[in-house]
Amino acid sequence: MKSKDMKPGSNPDKSSRMVPMSLMFVVLCGFSFYLGGIYCSEKNRFFKKEVEPKVESRREVAVPSSQMKPIAFPECGSDYQDYTPCTDPKKWRKYGNYRLSFMERHCPPMIERKECLVPPPEGYKSPIKWPKSRDECWYRNVPYNWINNQKSNQNWLRKEGEKFIFPGGGTMFPRGVGAYVDLMEDLIPGIKEGTVRTAIDTGCGVASWGGELLDRGVLTVSLAPRDNHEAQVQFALERGIPAILGIISTQRLPFPANSFDLAHCSRCLIPWTEFGGIYLTEIHRILRPGGFWVLSGPPVNYENRWRGWNTTVEEQKADFDKLKKLLSGMCFKLYNKKDDFAVWQKSSDNSCYDQLSLDSYPPKCDDSVDTDSAWYVPLRSCLTIPSQNLKKLALKSTPKWPDRLHIAPERVSLVPGGNSGLFKHDDSKWKVRIKHYKNLLPALGSNQIRNVMDMNTLFGGFAAALIDSPVWVMNVVSSYGPNSLGVVYDRGLIGSYHDWCEAFSTYPRTYDLLHLDGLFTAESHRCEMKYVLLEMDRILRPNGHVIIRESVYFVDAVDIIAKGLRWNCQKQDTEYSNTEKEKLLICQKKLWYSKSSQH
């Protein structure tokens, strides 16, 4: 051993070595104790902030509802009359232009959330009742002239006095939407036969296509992005036609895989073959095996139409050939073609996908992302392959409408605890509940209520029990709960994933009735009740109704907060009047006008 005092190889006395070693041991122990003290004090300093909010949140939940105080919510300014928090055009500049991603959902952070009541436009009237609303609406309810001015030659709509009139025209509907759908029925016999029930219209205009299909037994989700001038989705919902704000851009649409029987694009201006065909891969994902994709407009019928498209016949031919090649690589087959229509059909089984090689384009997706996951999930330019475990998923194996409404779908087994017995019990339960609801709210089942939302459905039983009423129902399944939305679509109903900690993808004043069953019990640990109720107020029409089915604690709590929303509420027993575990709260929103608009 080397040291300053001894030369190498010298032998020190053993007792002289023990003293410095003992001193070193004492020093190290003391230093370790010192570091431990610093660590503990710093840990308390940093982690104390994380622990304290959890304790506070438990204390808040435990506050008796009788001790809660009403909140007086102020009015938002009149410039918020069409406020859509997660698709706000005022915020578009903050986001990139790539693939129009600024039009996707971008919800405000908590610090920027509005705690005010969204006012109606000046001169707002109660909407025209269904079915008359399909053909006309009040101008003051959707006071936008852009479409009327820019599309007047295409008969999308026209202004007559205090109303907008919808004559059923469109870019590709020169003879009216009825004649357009007649030709489509000739090309796809399954529409008349009841095989095709659910559809999605991408780039829907004022939703005349979806409105026309309602009389033919087809329920359509009309999809269009929020915009500054056209207000397409707002017009659709004002007419009483199902619609939702959305765009195929960088994220999946909020629907499960293998849902829609038919997808439609009528000159929707989506660049289907660009970006590796990524937009078509999303259509492929949400279409049921054997489902149809209908395209009318460029480049279909380019031989006769190219002169009006500001292009050349060679360019349009190349585009059409590229589209056909891309669809063939996705296992679509050209099913029918006539005039301005081209219809492709998705493969009904996996035989085509089994033949795809590693060099195929687009490639098959790996299994790293659930095909049903669709809440802020990025689009991928690859094919999602239907599960081989589901033998009855294809359109040809799906019961025809209306039989499919009450038959337990195969996908019910994918829901935790789900089976045909539970499905039938749920179906029967909601028939009893709806009968009770109609006794308490006579407007339900009449033309006073048209646009309905079930805010947290399981199998769509609430909507199924209302099938004979003049309503349509948007069935919402929590993005954090059991994934049962595929079952809803298998029944021939429509819906969307959503997280109620955020705003829904719709305009203000678009629903006549909102229904929830245990939503606050399930989500109050994540979503603050005040903000959920403010969002409900935003999307509820004046004079619209709310049915809340909850535990007594939450019924009492909502009743208190509802006073600040200007709702009139009544507590009611459930159909089982002897239970004290849950109650009903039935509310109606008042029609009021902004003070600033009354000067």
From TrEMBL:
Its EC number is 2.1.1.41. It is an enzyme of class 2 (transferase). The keyword Methyltransferase applies. Keywords: Methyltransferase, Transferase. This is Sterol 24-C-methyltransferase protein. The lineage of its organism: Eukaryota, Viridiplantae, Streptophyta, Embryophyta, Tracheophyta.
